[in-house]
Amino acid sequence: MRAFEAAARHSSFKLAADELNVTPAAISQQVRSLEGFYDVKLFVRQTRALELTRIGKLAAPLMSEALDNFAEACFVIKNDIQRDWLTLTAPFTFSMKWLMPQLERFNEEYPQIEIRINATDDLIDLAHGEADIGIRYGDGNYPDLDVQKLMDGAYHVVASPDFLQKHGGLKRPAELLNHTLLHTDWRGSPDFVPNWEMLLKSAGVPVSDLAASKAHKFSNEMMSIDAAVTGLGIALVSHANVKDELKSGRLVKVFEDSALNAKKFDYYIVRAKDAAGSKSAAILHSWLCEHATNSLE
Fold this sequence. Notes:
CATH class of the largest domain: Alpha Beta
Helix content: 40-55%
Largest sheet: 5 strands, mixed
Mean pLDDT: 84
Distance between the termini: 63 Å
Number of helices: 10
Low-confidence stretches: none
Structural class: alpha/beta
């Protein structure tokens, strides 16, 4: 096939032979074998010229395209084999706000390790190989996984300065029920992540009126943060995801954390128990743990 494609492109057995580093006789023999296999004539052979037949003219460009595609496929396969791929799953907002900037630095140190990010609030099944490493936000109770704390998971009640100026400052958690609360829909584990009902209960506030209070609900924490920045209401968010907004002053804490007396949550890095893993997975695991604490300062 390569002999036919080269001969058709050059209109010459000799030039095709030069390109493929064989003799013109070898090119001629390979073309005859192809013609014999399909019982067709691909060339009209003349003394000083080589012309494609009608079938040859139809087949030649298709053969060129097929060989180009084959070469490209071989390159992709070879290139992918040489890469060391890891799949890392983490909550959506945490992936966007904290993880992505960290991975830029990781890539500078370990360019040979490439990472697929599954940014989702759903709990991915690491035990069955859906990811190599996971980062989870919660209480650390993951009995089917090897668990190591990654970083402190403090969370805050926040609002924009304009919102507080317009509606007045809040002095007690009970006053939250008088304002618009921004809810995040934690699809993966709603009972094991911060939510308004949990926070109000921990502050001794009856939650019977929570359902009747004004609220907006969002599918991820990033949307809740953006809504709070625009002054839409008060959000309950993780420090790791909102530290830049607090530092810039776009958001402020409504209460000091000590006033909340709320349940503690942290970020954990998890892997399947007894997973053989790879050297690259171990490198990423150690690197994330090493850089996590300093990144929150």
